[in-house]
TrEMBL record:
Name of protein: 3-deoxy-7-phosphoheptulonate synthase
Enzyme class: transferase
Top-level division of the source organism's lineage: Bacteria
InterPro entries reported in the protein's UniProt record: Aldolase_TIM (IPR013785), Class-I_DAHP_synthase (IPR052899), DAHP1/KDSA (IPR006218), DAHP_snth_FXD (IPR041071), DAHP_syn_2 (IPR006268)
Residues in DAHP synthase ferredoxin-like domain copies: 1-67
Native source organism of the sequence: Candidatus Avoscillospira avistercoris
């Protein structure tokens, strides 16, 4: 349920309404706009008399929200959410470019790539330390050492770092991580999402391999219900009957998620395509569809990469692409 308040409501009446709702175990999530204030009511609102609330002098309108996701719902929060990450932001018209290797392999590798992508205009550095792999015999990442090396690259370049968590037990290693990524396989790891909801650190939530839009938003709801509203959605391709590409990038997800939710939306064309030649056109399509930014894999020696070399761009290719993406972003936001 959402309660739209009149402009400059009487404070005493406002306090009485708040107390009345809290006595009924209803949490209030206020959104203060220029012309109106919206209260999003979270909890069991089925027993609330909508007509009684609407009759109050301070209330302009009351509406029930049918969707099961409340905090992530645009009806609760009409304005786009902007997530602050260090000195940069995600959403609100800014262009977010997250770039780096699939896996951290060495200090020289991650620092070299970090400097190269920063020179091309990347706003954040990505790199896998804990790697969820289909095969138990594949490279599993450098784990704690990988995060230490990412922290060195962060000191060298000043770029905020983004890396994936696989289990809540790893959280102690993530103190220096600026954005915690939840991968497709963990999108519905609800116990992990609950723990991340207790943080106030930005969470990059990737869509599952076969997840619907509502399922993605319900996973975001798990995090936000815990009090962490710093959630960034990410479309990374879904599994279809097509086998030519690694996954199928769902461009439709961008405008649909923008319509349903106020959260920023990024796209990962690298995991969607699985082939580096397809990454630039997919990245451009994502921005043209209204995405707030991209997360792209970049490696200075893809042929010898320990993970996902075939989908990684060389730094010089990323540099050219970044220039094209800035031009598209400027055109879309005119």
């Amino acid at each position: 349920m959402i309660v739209i308040l009149k402009k400059n409501p009487d404070q005493q009446q406002l306090d009485r309404l708040r107390s009345w709702l809290e006595e009924r175990h209803i949490a209030i999530h206020p959104t203060v706009g220029v012309n109106q204030t919206i209260w999003g009511l979270v909890g069991d609102t089925s027993h609330l008399d909508i007509n009684l609330i609407a009759s109050l002098d301070i209330v302009d309108d009351v509406k029930r929200v049918q969707e099961p996701y409340k905090n992530a719902n645009r009806k609760f929060h009409p304005a786009d959410t902007v997530v602050k990450v260090g000195s940069t932001t995600v959403g609100g018209g800014s262009l977010t470019l997250i770039a780096g290797p699939c896996s951290v392999e060495s200090e020289e590798q991650i620092c070299t790539i970090a400097q190269q992508v920063k020179a091309s205009g990347a706003t954040m550095l990505r790199g896998g330390a804990f790697k969820p792999r289909t095969s138990p015999y594949s490279f599993q990442g450098l784990r704690n050492e990988g995060i230490r090396l990412l922290s060195i690259a962060k000191k060298v370049t000043g770029l905020p770092i983004v890396t994936e968590i696989m289990d809540a037990s790893q959280l102690d290693c993530f103190d220096d991580v600026d954005v915690i990524q939840v991968g497709a396989r963990n999108m519905q790891n609800f116990e992990l999402l609950k723990v991340l909801g207790e943080l106030r650190k930005p969470i990059l939530l990737k869509r599952g391999l076969s997840a619907t839009y509502e399922e993605l938003l319900m996973s975001a709801e798990y995090i936000m219900a815990g009090g962490n509203e710093n959630v960034i959605l990410c479309e990374r391709g879904v599994r279809t009957f097509e086998t030519y590409t690694r996954n199928t990038m769902d461009v439709t997800a961008v405008p649909v998620l923008k319509q349903l939710s106020h959260l920023p939306v990024l796209v990962d064309p690298s995991h969607a395509a699985g082939k580096y030649k397809l990454v630039p056109p997919l990245a451009k399509a994502a921005l043209a569809a209204g995405a707030d930014g991209l997360i792209i894999e970049v490696h200075n020696d893809p042929e010898h990469a320990l993970c996902d070399g075939p989908q990684s761009l060389r730094p010089e290719v990323f540099d050219k692409l970044a220039g094209d993406l800035r031009a598209i972003h400027e055109l879309v936001h005119r």
